[in-house]
Every structure is written in structure tokens, then in C-alpha cells.
Amino acid sequence: MNPFRWSFRFQMLSAATICLALIGFAIYSQFAWGLKPCPLCIFQRIAFAALGLVLLLAGLHAPRGPAGRRTWGVLALAAAMAGIGVAARHVWLQMFPPEIPACGAPFAFMRETMDTPGLIRQVLIGTGDCGAVDWTFLGLSMPWWSLVWFVVLAAWALFAAFRRR
Question: pLDDT: is 5 or 72 the higher one?
């Protein structure tokens, strides 16, 4: 069964399932292995949730016309690009960690004391925690894998949305 020949609905629902599985793995690694997520990890989870929601809605709606499918593809791309941006920033911080790690305030405290734009700005600056590599698989850290999955899911959604029937 060739996944490139699946229906638009099944392609989008399978990609949404992958997003759910990736979030599940992140939560499992947090609680089973004790890996503490940094603020950028939390934002990547939010981006996977947003992408998964767009993909789920696209799969449930499954428009017949190309305009509707392309609209869902562009929405999925927007969600994936947000995730790509956060994951790329996280990878950059791991490749070039700050010389003096500054472990800022906990995310819960920042959420309670800062407005949303200030919180996003502070989180994207990153901390010493964001530069630490606590887990690798096949030589890539978790942010690297997140970046790979965001790119793959964006390409998959665009393929499903723009392919000729």
C-alpha cells in the first residue's frame, strides 16, 4: 500500500497521528526517563499540537476541491514553520551554547508574571538548559529530531494538498 496514493483524508489523519505520537513520546521521556523539558521543548510540543490539530481538521473536513485542500496545506505549513523556527533555534543553542549558562526563571513562573509577547521573547532567547543535550538517537538530539519531523510533516501536508488527482 503506497502512502503517496492514499486519499487526502487518510494522509492528513496519518500525519495528525504522527504528531500525537511525537507528543506522547516527549511526555513519556519526561516522566519515564526524567528528562526535564526546557521552555523551547514546551514550545515545540505546542507547535506539534497546533500542527496535529490542523492536520486532524483537514482530514476530517477532507474537501473535494483543490482550493480547500490547498488552504489546509498552507495552514499546515504555517503551523509547521512555527515549529521549524523554534526547533531550529533550539538546535542552534545546542550547537553554540552560551558561554555562561543562565538558567532563568522556571517556565511556570514566567507564565504567571509576564505578558504573552514578553514570555515568547524570553523563551526564544533560550537558557543554559536549552543548550544541554540530554538524549540522542542515531546521533541526533531531540530538538534535531523535532526539526526533522516538522520538515517531513510540512512536506507531507504540502504533497497531499497540492498533488494532482
Answer: 72
If one compares 4 and 156, the residue with the highest pLDDT of the two is 156
Q: How many CB atoms lie within 10 A of CB 109?
A: 10
Q: Which three cell numbers stand for residue 40?
A: 523551547
R_g of the chain computed on alpha carbons: 17
* Encoded amino acid at 81, one letter: M
Whether 38 sits among the annotated catalytic residues: the reply is yes
pLDDT at 100: 57
Known catalytic membership, residue 41:
yes
Active-site residue, selected from the candidate residues 19, 69, 89, 130: 130
Question: What is the C-alpha separation between 50 and 78, in angstroms, rounded?
Answer: 10
Select which of 5, 9, 41, 89 is catalytic: 41
Backbone CA torsion sign across 35, 144, 150, 21: negative
E strands present in the chain: 136-137, 140-141
pTM for the whole structure: 0.78
* H-type alpha helices, 114-141: 116-125, 128-131
Neighbours of 74 (CB within 10 A): 14
User: What is the pLDDT at residue 74?
Assistant: 93
Position with higher pLDDT, 26 vs 56: 56
Question: Is 19 among the residues known to form the active site?
Answer: no
